């Protein structure tokens, strides 16, 4: 576990040598992603950032303000619908045409359902496309650039580390059957698919540090957008303010994951008394996924991972994933 004061102390020591030179952000026009992008730009180090999303005109003012904050930042907007795998592939192609390497990929785009399963025009569940399939496709497409990084290549997927479970439908991974779809099953399945698939990619790409991060309860307004202006939102807001994490503190933690030497590489050097982080294999550095919760504590999930292995869940999920993203690879 790392205290927020230690995290802030590390982040104020970020320099051009420890910050990503080139980064890609999804979900950076709202919530944690927006706060993290803002915090990175506020370091005032030279950085080129690709911001991917839709409705670019709506976010022009925000991005222009960031450019004013850091004159050394090159902020590039790329327009596309991240819930569509074809457009995700198009955005990755554009980045690959411009760059020989990237240092960081930070993904937080998502959609919280109000209770009904909504499909994209490609026939995939909207929530799963944004939080899982699209993210795995983007990782696969951009890993050659990350592997080419001479710096500190890292991937952070902000989702639900620690919520892995064996209570998933291996015969219905897309939750299409009656009674299988719901907010709880959606959250648990996305967490489990993400950890299993990112763990596989981490083993295959040991130069890159992979994180599956749970930010905790953060009042980003996402639930209000999904459920509308209900009577209980003032109560939810009060609970969030008392026990939750602000987007700004959540952003400090994500920036720490992207820049601290705790996780290997040439990041910000640890202060006296701090120890290196351990990945899921309880080893230092890359070669396996880091599961990190909202307290910035590494998780190992040994029991559930052993049970999932006995179920052959990793291979089943990976085959389904490749079947879904394959036409866009």
Automatic annotation (TrEMBL):
<dbReference type="InterPro" id="IPR052228">
    <property type="entry name" value="Sec_Metab_Biosynth_Oxidored"/>
</dbReference>
<protein>
    <submittedName>
        <fullName>NAD(P)-binding protein</fullName>
    </submittedName>
</protein>
<dbReference type="InterPro" id="IPR002347">
    <property type="entry name" value="SDR_fam"/>
</dbReference>
<dbReference type="GO" id="GO:0016491">
    <property type="term" value="F:oxidoreductase activity"/>
</dbReference>
<dbReference type="InterPro" id="IPR036291">
    <property type="entry name" value="NAD(P)-bd_dom_sf"/>
</dbReference>
<dbReference type="Pfam" id="PF00106">
    <property type="entry name" value="adh_short"/>
</dbReference>
<keyword id="KW-0560">Oxidoreductase</keyword>
